[in-house]
Amino acid sequence: MKTLRIQFAILPLILISTVGQIAFGQQSKKPLADQLEDTQQLTRDARTPKIKKEVREENGRQVEYMFIDGIKVHETDPKKQPQPKVVTPQPYDAEAAQAPKDAIILFDGTEATAGNWTATSGKPTKWKLVDGALESVRRAGYIQSKQQFGSCQLHIEFATPKVPQGSGQGRGNSGVFVMGQYEIQVLDSYENSTYPDGQCGALYGRAKPLVNASRKPGEWQTFDITFHRPLFDEKGSVTRRAKFHVYHNGELIHDQHELSGGTGWVGRHSISEYKQHDDKGPIQMQDHGNPVRFRNIWVKELED
Q: Do 287 and 144 fall within a single domain?
């Protein structure tokens, strides 16, 4: 419905433009549908983030800096990149968290569904099954689903350690990756400051969450993610960017956000670009040295 509203909002502008062209003897030879597509392309171009890169020499090394719409990746200055507003999240809704009948159950707390996961090598994972949850083990590496997905709706629950240790990125750090490519950050962001594009719920390095809806350490939290995969042409160029619509503990944190590139770590102030990949990939969770737990993971595949 949102797309239709945009089209109808643009259409009068096209008609006005066409009338003006007729009045001055400059009527467009393009069909109205093509004019609409041209206008929509201009709209897409207008909302495309402006990416700038700089290479600076620091201590004899070449260091890359990336700026997205003028803001440095992993900017810590609140005057340049304000922290998201802290909100009190909605109570956990067990009924809403239940998997629909047509969902694919990736993990339900049982040993049987723990078998749906492997290490990234394909070998058995070293993560532990603890009290109905998959718990990250230090140096065990990422864990990933055997089944692969493209565009999808993903529900996943997580809990950072009840007794917090460390600060910033060192406190309750993990991540959820769709297609094994694009990360939604998991972090203990309850009264724990870090760079906004790396706090809990961030599309890592690319977009900070609209709000900080984190619960206290040890409490179960939810991500509800609607993801539409990117498309590439035969040359590997992006023809449609990945899109995220994400709720954290029932609070909207990304509203149909189109990802401007990849989310892979390049350096302290830079992040990866898009790189062509397969149409489907695994769901992954990150081992970042903290015993973060995950449970109630289910997926619904979406048409492109």
A: yes
What is the pTM assigned to this prediction? 0.83
Do residues 244 and 39 touch, judged by C-beta distance below 8 A? Answer: no
> For 50, how many CA atoms within 13 A lie in the half-sphere containing its CB?
4
| The pair of three-digit structure tokens given for residue 47, joined into one six-digit string | 């909302």
Q: What is the mean pLDDT of residues 177-197?
A: 97
Contact 128, 135 (CB under 8 A): yes
* Mean per-residue pLDDT over the chain, rounded: 88
Residue with tokens 């239940």: 98
| % of the chain residues with pLDDT over 90 | 76
Give the mean model confidence (pLDDT) for residues 168-177: 93
DSSP-assigned letter for residue 168: G
Q: Which amino acid is at 260?
A: S
Angstrom distance (rounded) from CA 229 to CA 238: 11
CB 143 within 8 A of CB 125: yes
b/e code 225-257 from CB counts within 10 Å (16+ = b): bbbbbbebeeeeebeebbbbbbbbbebebbeeb
Q: Which domain holds residue 26?
A: 2-45
**Same domain, yes or no: 214 and 290:** yes
Considering its fold, how many domains does the chain have in total?
A: 2
Rg (CA), the chain: 22
CA separation for the pair 206, 225 (Å, rounded): 16
CATH for 122: 2.60.120.560
Pair 153, 299: CB distance under 8 Å? yes
Alpha-carbon gap, residue 188 to 290, rounded angstroms = 10
Asked whether residue 155 falls in the same domain as residue 94, the answer is: yes
Strands 85-86, 211-212: parallel, antiparallel or unpaired by DSSP? Answer: parallel
